[in-house]
Amino acid sequence: MNFRVNIVGAGMSGLALAHGLHRLGIEVAVFERDPFPGARPQGYRIQLDAPGLDGLRRCLPPQLYKSCLATAASPPPRVTVLDQHLKVLADRAVSERARSGMITSLAFDRATLRQLLLAGLPADVHYGAQFATYDQLPDGRIAAHFADGRIVAGDLLVGADGVNSAVRRKLLPEAEIEDAGLRLIYGKIPLPDPASQALPDWVFESIFTVVKGAGGTHMGVGPVRNYVACLVGATTDHPCMPPFAALRRLDGPNLRDLAHRIIGPGHHPDIDRILGSWDTATLIPLRISTAGAVRQWDCHGVTLIGDAVHAMSPVLAMGANTALRDAGELTTSISAALESGTSPHDAVRRYEIGMLEYSSALVAASRRTGQERVGQR
Questions:
Q1: What's the sign of the alpha-carbon dihedral 235, 240, 242, 248?
Q2: Is 169 helix (H, G, I), strand (E, B) or coil?
Q3: Which of 81, 233, 245, 349 lies most in the core, judged by the most C-beta atoms within 10 Å?
Q4: DSSP secondary-structure letter at 195?
């Protein structure tokens, strides 16, 4: 069967899906608006639990999957919540053993994982391809139009282009992406490094630790392999938090100074030790968004995965997990259709029904947890 898939977005879920479809013998191409890999900062640490690891496993060739796992860190699979005086508020295991028997809570560096997915991908990845719109051709195929004038036709168009998805805006113009009312200052503490020797032992005793302060302020730390990811977050109405446009203009040292002011006085001295170890060159500001309700759409030949359809706040660490689950579910559904001789488009519809069910529950749970823990809207 001749079946071509065009994927808009070369993030992790789009690349994982491209691997999965290529392994099925499907012609696939990826179109990315950035001019080259790493053109803009997209964050550092990601935590993959059973859903994300299983999605990755279903998409990738076995050897590439093993190579990805080899880059991960595996600190104790627990999430610990402390107050500003480091009193334990909660301490829980975050995963069980997967069907394979492997512990399924691993910390990856986002850039390293993406580089591996790119390096091992036999399909074409086109950079500088800003998606503009699509239309349906008389033969039922979908023609994707790009800002540079190119038009690419295929049997399926997949929007994997993130929170500000241009494919979603065309497919579901009424679908809202809401400002969660949270801002983060995010960066790395290199390991090993003289500064990192000042880090307290408790930083390494959980896969992620959240230190809660007053009024929704919080600090999060999580070890990877060669660094510790560290963030400071607060709500938009925090008296020290500037508008996001002004936040984006601050350089690293000023972002660190702002983080100190956000955390405020009266906390354990370890907090100052950690923030003092930040590599200010790595600091970036982030705005947190969450998806509104998404209805089942009725457009033959266009679908969505990842943040393009179900952006969620990071409090449950399920954004990347769910995006990679999407890639695995869509690959598996299309594979079953090819084996049975049924329509791949019917397989895509089955994926969409299942995806909207599990993702809407996670978006709601992330919103609810964010409201309870860190003052999310």
A1: negative
A2: helix
A3: 233
A4: G
Give the integer Cα–Cα distance in Å for 322 and 317.
9
Three-class SS state of 88: strand
Token pair of 251 as six digits: 């350089």
Task: Please give the single-letter amino acid code of residue 226.
Answer: N
* Distance, CA of 157 to CA of 159 (rounded, Å): 7
Residue whose C-alpha is closest to residue 193's, from 281, 108, 129, 271: 281
Parallel, antiparallel, or unpaired for β 156-159 and 4-8? parallel
Question: 252-263 vs 269-276: helix axis angle to the nearest 10?
Answer: 170
CA-CA distance, 299 to 11, in Å (whole number)?
23
Separation CA 122–CA 144 (nearest Å):
21
Contact 133, 170 (CB under 8 A): yes
Tokens at 247, concatenated: 């936040």
User: Nearest CA to 262 among 214, 228, 230, 229?
Assistant: 214
Tokens of 208: 């992620």
Whether omega before 37 lies within 30 degrees of 0, making that bond cis, reads: no
Residues 230, 104, 48, CA angle at the centre, nearest 5°? 40
Give the CA distances from residue 279 to residues 22, 195, 248, 254, in Å, rounded to whole numbers and listed in that order.
39, 9, 17, 12
Among 128, 111, 113, smallest CA distance to 31 is for 128
Burial, 101: exposed, middle or buried (Cβ in 10 Å; 0-12, 13-18, 19+)?
A: exposed
Per-residue model confidence as pLDDT tens for the chain (377 residues): 689 999 999 999 999 999 999 999 999 999 999 999 888 888 899 999 999 999 999 999 999 999 999 999 988 888 999 999 999 999 987 654 434 445 568 999 999 999 999 988 988 899 999 999 999 999 999 999 999 999 999 999 999 999 999 999 999 999 999 999 999 999 999 997 665 567 999 999 999 999 999 888 999 999 999 999 999 999 999 999 999 999 999 999 999 999 999 999 999 999 999 999 999 999 999 999 999 989 899 888 999 999 999 999 999 999 999 999 999 999 999 999 999 999 999 999 999 999 999 999 999 999 999 998 899 99
